[in-house]
TrEMBL record:
It is a peripheral membrane protein. Keywords: Disulfide bond, Electron transport, Endoplasmic reticulum, FAD, Flavoprotein, Glycoprotein, Membrane, Oxidoreductase, Redox-active center, Signal, Transmembrane, Transmembrane helix, Transport. It is found in: Endoplasmic reticulum membrane. One of its GO terms (molecular function) is FAD binding. It comes from Drosophila busckii. Its main location: endoplasmic reticulum. GO terms for biological process: protein folding in endoplasmic reticulum; regulation of cilium movement. May function both as a monomer and a homodimer. This is Ero1L.
């Protein structure tokens, strides 16, 4: 079923209505007001990274693929400063600990040293420690975050909504195919083309529980992206080619082509169920990280808004914690030593998926593809982080002040990606309701 990973992929009997009701009535409206806030709308990303796997096949010329640049003055100053301060403070804390570990004696008091960080430690030593700090933190990462690259830029997500772009054909297919192929652990590369599609058909009955979960997560993400393009479809184009406006709305025919049993050899409804699966994975991650997320300060420099965001986050996390049928992350990687290797393979495969995103030949799709894979990677990091687990078990988050290094940390970019990625899944489930209403006499989820 959606929440458990036992049994075959086709034997779900979980109640879609429960998730629909919970999402559409409680989660979706809250996310809608949260994600327009400054903290969440500006996302730092490198869209210029070269594809590491094959020569760039296209710099997409489709006009709806363009990402509108964000004017620097639109980004709250406080937010930029805070991001830099946060990174420096984190790296200094690590540096200080590393110095103590290595028997260095001239460690200054943290608070007083923060102000002149760069002078208290020689540049070279600082850089070296920074590298170690990054290496240490990256150990738990399921995803590559590129917000420190020189080419990384803030993008205003509200100016660049995820919707139909016209990106399709070989380039899009190559991306999806490469992503699904990451599921072929240990050379288990089955490529029979049962559905006359290029996506390798994996016989799910022969897969172990982790592989099945991997497939369902990716398939759920694929469904979500395709639901968005169906619900914000270009219904009528403006006659002026340079005019990006047009009439946008839901395209039921397109939705049916992509998901009805008749046009997908019966697979479409399963793909839609996988959307609910990934939704529950990310929901569980938010619930698990709730005590940590409540301590964040969501700083943009606009005091009133920051306080509002903190309250809204607290309210949403409480709703999420109240959900009864959470995904059980302990069903994965629980069988002894082999699991440790498997978990590492898994991480590597998800990291590869974030690299594949650099090969997407449509900037708008790349933006949202990167954001959603980063959000997913952050969710997996939360679910399988030993650091978070031990901080939670030792009651660290309940302490009024955390004096020591908080062990587990998410960057601003990871938090922004996590909430926005979850927002995308929540919107897809909400949009499903609209399609279901229109197609009321043709139940597509049965
Ligand atoms: P595709 O969606 O390309 O799917 C290919 C094959 O995969 C199908 O034939 C089917 O056999 C199988 N398949 C389809 N769905 C699933 C599923 N859920 N689970 C398992 N198997 C499945 N287009 C936009 O208009 N806007 C966007 O924002 C956008 N973002 C994208 C982001 C990424 C990262 C990628 C790779 C593509 C994006 N696209 C976007 C393109 C879009 O996803 C489709 O690839 C495109 O519309 C072509 O669709 P298609 O009918 O050929 O099937």
């Amino acid at each position: 079923c959606f929440c458990e990973l036992e049994g075959s992929i086709n034997d779900c009997s979980c109640d879609v209505d429960t998730v629909d009701h919970f999402n559409n009535m409680k989660v979706y409206p809250r996310l809608q007001s949260l994600l327009v806030k400054n903290f969440f709308r500006f996302y730092k990303v490198n869209l210029k990274q070269e594809c590491p796997f094959w020569p760039d096949d296209s710099r997409c010329a489709i006009r709806f693929c363009q990402v509108q640049n964000c004017e620097d003055k639109a980004i709250p100053e406080g937010m930029k400063e805070k991001a830099e301060h946060r990174e420096k403070a984190a790296s200094f804390k690590y540096t200080r600990e590393a110095q103590v570990d290595r028997g260095c004696s001239d460690v200054e008091d943290f608070d007083s040293a923060l102000g002149f960080l760069d002078t208290s430690i020689s540049d070279q030593a600082h850089r070296e420690f920074e590298l170690w700090a990054k290496h240490d933190e990256a150990e738990e990462d399921f995803c590559i975050v590129d917000d420190h690259d020189v080419d990384a830029q803030y993008v205003d997500l509200l100016l660049n909504p995820e919707r139909y772009t016209g990106y399709r054909g070989d380039s899009a297919h190559r991306i999806w195919k490469s992503i699904y192929l990451e599921n072929c652990f240990g050379g288990n590369n089955q490529s029979s083309n049962k559905f006359s599609s290029f996506v390798p058909h994996l016989d799910l009955r022969n897969l172990c529980v982790e592989q099945r979960a991997f497939y369902r997560i990716i398939s759920g993400l694929h469904s979500s992206i395709n639901i968005h393009l169906c619900s914000k479809y270009l219904l009528s184009e403006s006659k002026d080619f340079l005019d990006p406006q047009g009439i946008w709305g839901a395209n039921v025919k397109e939705f049916m082509r992509r998901f009805s049993p008749e046009t997908t050899s019966g697979e479409g409804p399963h793909w839609l169920r996988n959307l609910y699966f990934i939704y529950l994975v990310e929901l569980r991650a938010l619930a698990k990280a709730a005590p940590y997320l409540r301590r964040e300060d969501y700083y943009t420099g606009i005091a009133e808004e920051d306080e509002e965001v903190k309250l809204a986050i607290n309210d949403m996390l409480s709703i999420i914690e109240s959900f009864q049928s959470h995904f059980n992350e302990n069903a994965l990687f629980s069988s002894g030593i082999a699991s440790i290797k498997f978990k590492n393979d898994y991480k590597e495969k998800f990291r590869n998926i974030s690299r594949i995103m650099d090969c997407v030949g449509c900037d708008k799709c790349k933006l949202w593809g990167k954001l959603q894979t980063q959000g997913l990677g952050t969710a997996l990091k939360i679910l399988y982080s030993e650091k978070l687990q031990s901080a939670t078990e030792s009651g660290l988050w309940d302490k009024p002040h955390i004096e020591a290094d908080p062990i587990f940390r998410l960057s601003r970019t990871e938090i922004v990606a996590l909430f926005n990625a979850f927002g995308r899944l929540s919107t897809s489930i909400y949009e499903m309701e609209n399609f279901r209403r229109v197609l009321s006499n043709r139940s597509i989820l049965n």
